[in-house]
Structure formats: C-alpha cells, structure tokens
Task: structure prediction
Amino acid sequence: MNLLEQLNQDMKTAMKNKEKDKLSVIRMVKSSLQNEQIKLGRELTDDDSLTVLNRELKQRKDSLHEFEKADREDLAVKLRAEISILEEYMPEQLSEDELATIVKDTIAEVGASSKADMGKVMGAIMPKVKGKADGGLVNRLVQQHLS
Result:
C-alpha cells in the first residue's frame, strides 16, 4: 500500500472517530502530495512521497523550535501533536550506531580524509538514509569522523 492509499484509509478512520487534529494533518499532507504531483506532472514514486513527507515534518520542527523560543506553549503543543502524527508515516529511523556505521563505510567508499571532503560524503550518504535519519545528525556524525 502506498502512502496516498494509507492516508486515504486513515482519513476515513479519523472521520469516523472524530479525530479533528489527525484529520487536519492528513488533509494537509494529502494536499502537499497532490501539489507535488501537479508540479512534477506525473504520478509520485515512493521516494517523491517520502521527500514531501520529510519537508512537511521539517517545516513543523522548525516552527516548533521558533514557538518554543518565543514561549508560545499553546502553539508548540499543537505542533508536537502534528509531528507525532506525521512520524507515523515515516519509515523507521536509524539508530545513531547504525548511522555511524553507514557514515564510516561511506567515508571509506568516497575516500574522504578531511573536512574539505564533507560535501562529497554528505552527497553520498543522504540518498542512502533518506527519510530514515535527520540531516543534522548525519552532518554532525560526518564532521566527527572527518576530524
């Protein structure tokens, strides 16, 4: 079952159970997926869907950070709920140990030896861990291993 089918099924369930917050998030994600499909002019692949889902999650996490900085706990609570709903549709996240192993292997693959090779390493790692790891964590691990 692809993401759009899963969202449609969950949307029906949320309507029946009168889960307004979940329904709202699902509708926003579906809208983003449909906009992306129109923009690309073709059916979305699982990879495309994952990219859109990642973008939605990142936007909410960035907003959450700003709301917390501004002491807007009322808005932060709402965003935390939205983030937890979105995370249900994300693939299982890699542990830091699994990620460190991938980073080491990729550094060896690319033949990187200094921080000057950071772009090459990141370019090689990100497609491997797309949707399964936070880019900031990957960046931090790459910097640790290259220094």
Summary: The CA atoms of residues 129 and 136 lie 12 Å apart.
